Amino acid sequence: MKELLRSTDPTVIAFATALLEGEDIDVFDMDVHMSILDGSLGILPRRLMVRDADLFIARAVLRDNGIPTGLE
């Protein structure tokens, strides 16, 4: 699995997940429950992971929809 996106904004994570699932790309949302540790302040980023084989197309989908990954 490769990290595709890291963000503290839950709306960006939700939008990216919906886009990728719409393209039949399996997405795993990591660090979802870390908000317990930061008191739901949103200071710890969540990560979206995809399979190695899907990384190229997943980056293209996000880029085409204006979501910068910042991990390229």
UniProtKB/TrEMBL annotation:
<feature type="domain" description="DUF2007">
    <location>
        <begin position="1"/>
        <end position="64"/>
    </location>
</feature>
<dbReference type="InterPro" id="IPR018551">
    <property type="entry name" value="DUF2007"/>
</dbReference>
<dbReference type="InterPro" id="IPR011322">
    <property type="entry name" value="N-reg_PII-like_a/b"/>
</dbReference>
<protein>
    <submittedName>
        <fullName>DUF2007 domain-containing protein</fullName>
    </submittedName>
</protein>
<dbReference type="Pfam" id="PF09413">
    <property type="entry name" value="DUF2007"/>
</dbReference>
